[in-house]
Protein 1
Amino acid sequence: MTDNLKRFQISCPVFWGFNRFVDISKANSINDCINLFLQTHREFLFEQNYIDLLNYFDAHKSEYHIHDLTFDDIKNTNEIIYVCRHCQETENSESNLSENVLENNLNKDQYKNSILNLY
Ligand SMILES: [Zn+2]
């Protein structure tokens, strides 16, 4: 038996490292788990008054996903569960955080999406 508190961590170029224990006893799917965890991150940004980061996060929330785990795997693991938003980014050589990263990322993502649509 494992308990319902699972440790999730964000794996993305901007918010990497944020982690929380989340009670997944009410979750019915991987998406529920992701949403519960992302909600704790959203509340954190809100409480800290990181308004620009919050807007950025909201704009990218739908890109987060979990690799290689089924919902059963999540229920049975005691390991850290990584919630990823790296895939879109790693295809580009630029990975340094600059002061302009928030504004740039919005444009870059649109650019990248238009590139991806070519394939
Ligand atoms: Zn990924």
Protein 2
Amino acid sequence: MTSRTIPKSVRDANGRNGKALVLFGDDNGHKNQAAFGKPQVLTGDCLRVLPTLPTESVQCCVTSPPYWGLRDYDHPGQIGMEASPEFYVANLITIFREVRRVLRKDGTLWLNVGDGYARNGGTGNCGPNAIVGNTKKLIQRRNCKVPDCWGLKDRDLMGLPWRVAFGLQADGWILRSRITWIKKTAMPESVKNRPTSATEEIFLFTKSINYYYDPLGVREPTGANLRNYWLLGPDPNGAGHPAAFPRELARRCILLGSREGDAVLDPFGGCGTTGFAASELNRQSILIELNPTYAQMGRDQPCNGKKTRVKTTGS
Ligand SMILES: C[S@@+](CC[C@H](N)C(=O)[O-])C[C@H]1O[C@@H](n2cnc3c(N)ncnc32)[C@H](O)[C@@H]1O
């Protein structure tokens, strides 16, 4: 990771109450202004861009990194294409250490991470001469050889969300909740020897034992305190991104973890779901996205293009 000198304008920026304009530089050294309510999208590798953000400037981080070996986001610097899931976990710990610096003392991290299966040549398209489609490249690679770590065997569920969670916990984060996102519409899987996966984890991490959490931000329909399982469908129009999460997911995390005028961060911004939810809720937002096409979507409009379907293989 390269660290840069933070300009004075950035160090002095105040992200609360929506009054200040926050100046940040992106990977290409461009200056950007985060106007109140409008997402600020920085194009670049979050490993490089996060160190340019001011310390304790953001109230809440809502994000979903690429899952290991699953999709190809068409960039050599992408997270998720590490040779081993061990390196993936290590990379995420490094990135979220920087997120912790950027978060206010009473800030929260809402982290959605997905799992995957260890496979030995499951697809028949392994080896250097395999002809594979662009979006299936990483799935194929993942399915070629069981990773040599954690005692994994062929067809083992890797338990990646919890491995990441334990890694972050050991790195200093406080793990406060595990929320299960139950998908109304599950991704089709061609499996006949186990149930289809239709859930994902969202972890709530904090920097300190005293943190901002608004229990009235989202309630159960009965008025009771919100439970830790969320039944959410995909956004009605789909998305112009293969792995966008539902706007409602981001909306809930933002309502629970910030006040109007606060700054919200997504270091894996995708097509900008977190930013659009933040704007609707009168929060500032800073998104970092490696792929310029997705970054532009985050600047332009809510994610409502045609969804690129990527079918996962049965493992
Ligand atoms: C799971 S998607 C996030 C989708 C997002 N939550 C949304 O709703 O649109 C992960 C994103 O991280 C981006 N990405 C991968 N590696 C990155 C990196 N090192 N820095 C910044 N973004 C990265 C990918 O291009 C992809 O768009």
